[in-house]
Design a protein that fits this description.
Number of strands: 7
Distance between the termini: 41 Å
Radius of gyration: 16 Å
Shape: globular
Structural class: alpha/beta
Order of helices and strands: HEHEHEEHEEEH
Number of helices: 5
Strand order of the largest sheet: 3-2-1-4-5-7-6
Protein backbone atom coordinates (compact mmCIF):
# COMPACT_ATOMS: atom_id res chain seq x y z
CA UNK A 1 0.00 0.00 0.00
CA UNK A 2 1.11 3.54 -0.68
CA UNK A 3 0.03 7.16 -0.59
CA UNK A 4 -1.29 8.10 -4.02
CA UNK A 5 -1.06 11.90 -3.99
CA UNK A 6 -0.16 14.95 -1.95
CA UNK A 7 2.79 15.75 0.29
CA UNK A 8 3.55 12.08 1.01
CA UNK A 9 2.94 10.84 -2.53
CA UNK A 10 4.52 7.46 -3.23
CA UNK A 11 5.37 6.75 0.41
CA UNK A 12 4.76 3.25 1.74
CA UNK A 13 1.96 2.43 4.21
CA UNK A 14 2.66 -0.44 6.60
CA UNK A 15 -0.01 -3.15 6.71
CA UNK A 16 -1.20 -5.54 9.40
CA UNK A 17 -1.39 -9.32 9.69
CA UNK A 18 -3.71 -10.98 7.21
CA UNK A 19 -5.20 -12.85 10.17
CA UNK A 20 -6.91 -9.65 11.32
CA UNK A 21 -10.39 -8.73 9.98
CA UNK A 22 -8.97 -5.85 7.93
CA UNK A 23 -9.65 -5.36 4.24
CA UNK A 24 -7.65 -2.34 3.07
CA UNK A 25 -9.25 -0.12 0.46
CA UNK A 26 -7.79 -0.77 -2.99
CA UNK A 27 -5.75 1.92 -4.74
CA UNK A 28 -8.36 2.03 -7.50
CA UNK A 29 -11.25 2.74 -5.12
CA UNK A 30 -9.16 5.12 -3.02
CA UNK A 31 -8.16 7.15 -6.06
CA UNK A 32 -11.76 7.39 -7.25
CA UNK A 33 -13.15 8.37 -3.83
CA UNK A 34 -10.51 11.05 -3.36
CA UNK A 35 -11.17 12.43 -6.83
CA UNK A 36 -14.81 12.84 -5.80
CA UNK A 37 -14.11 14.52 -2.46
CA UNK A 38 -11.07 16.56 -3.53
CA UNK A 39 -12.78 19.98 -3.07
CA UNK A 40 -13.72 19.06 0.51
CA UNK A 41 -10.24 18.05 1.69
CA UNK A 42 -8.30 21.29 2.32
CA UNK A 43 -8.66 22.10 6.00
CA UNK A 44 -11.14 19.27 6.62
CA UNK A 45 -11.71 17.57 9.97
CA UNK A 46 -12.01 13.83 9.32
CA UNK A 47 -13.23 10.82 11.29
CA UNK A 48 -12.13 7.34 10.21
CA UNK A 49 -14.15 4.50 11.78
CA UNK A 50 -12.94 0.89 11.46
CA UNK A 51 -9.65 2.60 10.57
CA UNK A 52 -7.64 -0.60 10.00
CA UNK A 53 -4.23 0.45 8.68
CA UNK A 54 -5.18 4.14 8.64
CA UNK A 55 -4.85 4.08 4.84
CA UNK A 56 -7.75 6.46 4.11
CA UNK A 57 -6.88 9.00 6.82
CA UNK A 58 -3.22 9.01 5.81
CA UNK A 59 -4.20 9.76 2.22
CA UNK A 60 -6.48 12.56 3.43
CA UNK A 61 -3.71 14.12 5.51
CA UNK A 62 -1.32 13.93 2.57
CA UNK A 63 -3.90 15.74 0.42
CA UNK A 64 -4.53 18.60 2.84
CA UNK A 65 -6.99 17.51 5.51
CA UNK A 66 -6.38 19.50 8.70
CA UNK A 67 -6.80 16.70 11.24
CA UNK A 68 -8.12 13.18 11.48
CA UNK A 69 -9.42 10.98 14.28
CA UNK A 70 -9.02 7.24 13.71
CA UNK A 71 -10.93 4.59 15.64
CA UNK A 72 -10.39 0.83 15.64
CA UNK A 73 -10.98 -1.94 18.19
CA UNK A 74 -7.91 -4.03 17.34
CA UNK A 75 -4.76 -3.23 19.39
CA UNK A 76 -2.57 -4.40 16.51
CA UNK A 77 -4.28 -1.91 14.18
CA UNK A 78 -3.80 0.91 16.68
CA UNK A 79 -0.10 0.09 16.96
CA UNK A 80 0.28 -0.06 13.19
CA UNK A 81 -1.51 3.27 12.68
CA UNK A 82 0.90 4.94 15.12
CA UNK A 83 3.77 3.41 13.16
CA UNK A 84 2.38 4.82 9.90
CA UNK A 85 1.83 8.28 11.39
CA UNK A 86 5.41 8.42 12.63
CA UNK A 87 6.71 7.07 9.31
CA UNK A 88 4.90 9.78 7.33
CA UNK A 89 5.37 12.64 9.80
CA UNK A 90 1.66 13.13 10.53
CA UNK A 91 1.69 12.45 14.28
CA UNK A 92 0.73 16.02 15.25
CA UNK A 93 -2.31 16.02 12.95
CA UNK A 94 -3.98 12.81 14.10
CA UNK A 95 -5.65 11.23 17.11
CA UNK A 96 -5.82 7.44 17.33
CA UNK A 97 -8.39 5.85 19.61
CA UNK A 98 -9.11 2.25 20.50
CA UNK A 99 -12.88 1.91 20.49
CA UNK A 100 -15.85 -0.13 19.36
CA UNK A 101 -17.85 1.61 16.63
CA UNK A 102 -20.86 -0.51 17.57
CA UNK A 103 -21.07 1.21 20.96
CA UNK A 104 -22.21 4.83 21.57
CA UNK A 105 -19.93 7.33 19.83
CA UNK A 106 -20.95 10.55 21.59
CA UNK A 107 -17.45 10.93 23.05
CA UNK A 108 -16.01 11.50 19.56
CA UNK A 109 -17.67 14.89 19.16
CA UNK A 110 -15.22 16.45 21.63
CA UNK A 111 -12.28 15.51 19.39
CA UNK A 112 -13.75 17.77 16.68
CA UNK A 113 -13.88 20.71 19.13
CA UNK A 114 -17.62 19.94 19.31
CA UNK A 115 -18.09 21.19 15.75
CA UNK A 116 -18.52 17.82 14.02
CA UNK A 117 -16.60 16.17 11.21
CA UNK A 118 -16.50 17.34 7.60
CA UNK A 119 -15.79 13.81 6.33
CA UNK A 120 -16.59 10.52 8.06
CA UNK A 121 -15.22 7.39 6.40
CA UNK A 122 -16.37 3.88 7.28
CA UNK A 123 -15.07 0.67 5.78
CA UNK A 124 -16.49 -2.01 8.10
CA UNK A 125 -15.12 -5.57 7.99
CA UNK A 126 -17.38 -7.92 6.10
CA UNK A 127 -17.70 -10.16 9.20
CA UNK A 128 -18.42 -9.18 12.80
CA UNK A 129 -16.76 -10.67 15.90
CA UNK A 130 -19.31 -13.53 15.85
CA UNK A 131 -18.36 -14.27 12.21
CA UNK A 132 -21.71 -12.97 11.00
CA UNK A 133 -21.49 -11.70 7.45
CA UNK A 134 -22.28 -8.13 6.41
CA UNK A 135 -23.75 -6.95 9.69
CA UNK A 136 -21.79 -3.84 10.69
CA UNK A 137 -22.85 -0.95 8.43
CA UNK A 138 -26.36 -0.48 9.80
CA UNK A 139 -25.49 -0.24 13.53
CA UNK A 140 -22.42 1.89 12.78
CA UNK A 141 -24.47 4.38 10.76
CA UNK A 142 -27.09 4.48 13.49
CA UNK A 143 -24.45 5.31 16.09
CA UNK A 144 -22.97 8.10 13.96
CA UNK A 145 -26.41 9.61 13.46
CA UNK A 146 -27.31 9.25 17.14
CA UNK A 147 -24.12 11.03 18.21
CA UNK A 148 -24.64 13.84 15.65
CA UNK A 149 -21.04 13.66 14.52
CA UNK A 150 -21.47 15.34 11.13
CA UNK A 151 -20.51 18.99 10.75
CA UNK A 152 -22.90 21.23 8.78
CA UNK A 153 -22.59 20.17 5.13
CA UNK A 154 -20.45 17.19 6.18
CA UNK A 155 -20.57 13.82 4.40
CA UNK A 156 -20.28 10.14 5.30
CA UNK A 157 -18.51 7.73 2.96
CA UNK A 158 -19.50 4.11 3.57
CA UNK A 159 -17.78 1.21 1.78
CA UNK A 160 -19.76 -2.05 1.67
CA UNK A 161 -19.99 -5.34 -0.17
CA UNK A 162 -22.54 -5.06 -2.98
CA UNK A 163 -24.85 -7.62 -1.32
CA UNK A 164 -25.01 -5.87 2.06
CA UNK A 165 -28.35 -4.35 2.94
CA UNK A 166 -28.72 -1.68 5.61
CA UNK A 167 -31.27 0.82 6.81
CA UNK A 168 -30.34 4.49 6.55
CA UNK A 169 -31.14 6.55 9.68
CA UNK A 170 -33.95 9.05 9.21
CA UNK A 171 -31.54 11.97 9.68
CA UNK A 172 -29.37 10.86 6.75
CA UNK A 173 -29.80 10.31 3.02
CA UNK A 174 -27.71 8.63 0.33
CA UNK A 175 -27.01 11.08 -2.47
CA UNK A 176 -24.48 9.12 -4.54
CA UNK A 177 -23.36 5.50 -4.97
CA UNK A 178 -20.32 4.26 -6.90
CA UNK A 179 -19.74 0.60 -7.84
CA UNK A 180 -16.33 -1.03 -8.11
CA UNK A 181 -16.66 -4.76 -8.81
CA UNK A 182 -18.13 -6.33 -5.65
CA UNK A 183 -17.75 -3.09 -3.67
CA UNK A 184 -20.20 -0.22 -3.31
CA UNK A 185 -19.24 3.20 -1.96
CA UNK A 186 -22.20 5.18 -0.60
CA UNK A 187 -22.03 8.93 -0.05
CA UNK A 188 -24.44 10.20 2.60
CA UNK A 189 -25.34 13.60 4.07
CA UNK A 190 -27.84 15.04 6.49
CA UNK A 191 -31.38 15.15 5.14
CA UNK A 192 -31.99 18.59 3.71
CA UNK A 193 -35.03 20.67 4.56
CA UNK A 194 -37.60 20.86 1.78
CA UNK A 195 -37.07 24.58 1.32
CA UNK A 196 -33.31 24.02 0.99
CA UNK A 197 -33.79 21.23 -1.55
CA UNK A 198 -36.21 23.33 -3.58
CA UNK A 199 -33.81 26.28 -3.53
CA UNK A 200 -30.94 24.05 -4.68
CA UNK A 201 -32.97 22.75 -7.60
Amino acid sequence: MRIIAGTARGRRIFSVSKNLPVKPISDRIKQSVFDIIRPRLPGAMMLDLFAGTGNVSLEALSRGALRTVMVDREPACIKNIHRNLEHLGFVDRAKVLRGDVLKPLDYLLAYSDNEGYDIIFMGPPYRDINNKMLALSEPALANVAQARLLAPNGIIILQTHKTEEFAVPAALEIYRVEKYGDTLVHFLRAVRAKSESTHAE
